[in-house]
Design goal:
three-stranded mixed sheet; mainly alpha; 7 strands; 52% helix
């Protein structure tokens, strides 16, 4: 079988094909959200400035590692696939919050900003529109119907669930949400006090109880359906012995005070 010789393409043709290829790559990157190089700015910030106890805000303020990522968010196209959309907005919320605190460093609490309401009063540009943190949380993420999102969002406060160690991804979202929810619950987001016979809960369960109440769970003796759903959610992510005690009942629910002090790394 004979093969035809490969003839070199004229330079103008090669240049045209290269331009078309670059345009296709750029279009695919835009449709997927922030470009990879800019997205790495958020991953690098988490890798270099986030610890198990909080964020090194003075270092973030000095290095400004999020500038390119936040600029890319402003012009990104919002994903439409549910997992990609949720990951996109969780990452945006957390990065904007870290950058907001770093830009205003030093401060004792994020509530020192904007009359205590930075979530409602401070606007950012994401995906071509002006938007608040409050809108991201309550109008975009919560309506997606997954209560685990509350374990993924970080409000720059010690009372919040810990900031995840890496950006959320579309492909790994379910496992990532499972991991951060378990870490939050077992790290103090909820605990069964056997002495007082109380399930001591983060205020997040009180503020967003209806979100957790949507999670199917068997009734817990002595608790209302809503309280049973919350206890069932906690049991799902608790250590086995604690989970069994939670499902057995015989306790009341108690909301713990919320710590709004800034989550500066110790």
């Amino acid at each position: 079988m004979h093969t035809l010789p490969t003839l070199p393409l004229p330079s103008p043709v090669r240049a045209g094909l290269r331009a078309i290829a670059l345009l296709c790559l750029w279009t695919m990157g835009l449709a997927a959200g922030p470009a990879r190089a800019e997205e790495d700015g958020w991953a690098r910030t988490l890798r270099e400035h986030r610890t198990s106890t909080g964020v090194r805000y003075p270092a973030v303020a000095a290095a400004k590692p999020l500038d390119a990522y936040l600029a890319s968010l402003a012009t990104a196209v919002e994903p439409t696939e549910p997992a990609a959309k949720m990951a996109f907005w969780i990452n945006a919320y957390n990065a904007l919050t870290v950058d907001l605190v770093a830009d205003n460093w030093p401060l004792g609490s994020i509530r020192d900003l904007d009359g205590g309401q930075p979530w409602k009063r401070r606007s950012f540009v994401v995906a071509g529109r002006s938007i608040t943190l409050d809108h991201i949380e309550h109008q975009i993420l919560r309506p997606m119907g997954d209560p685990r999102v509350h374990a993924a969002l970080n409000c720059a406060s010690r009372g919040c669930p810990p900031l995840a160690a890496a950006p959320f991804t579309a492909a790994g979202l379910n496992a990532e949400l499972e991991a951060v929810t378990q870490a939050w619950i077992r790290g103090g987001g909820a605990r069964l006090n056997r002495t007082t016979k109380q399930l001591e809960l983060s205020a997040i369960f009180d503020w967003f109880g209806e979100d957790f109440a949507r999670s199917p769970a068997p009734p817990v003796p002595g608790l209302t359906p809503k309280a049973s759903a919350i206890a069932g959610f906690v049991a799902r992510y608790s250590a086995p012995e604690e989970a069994a005690a939670l499902r057995a009942g015989g306790y009341a629910l108690r909301t713990l005070p919320y710590d709004w002090s800034v989550n500066l790394a110790r």
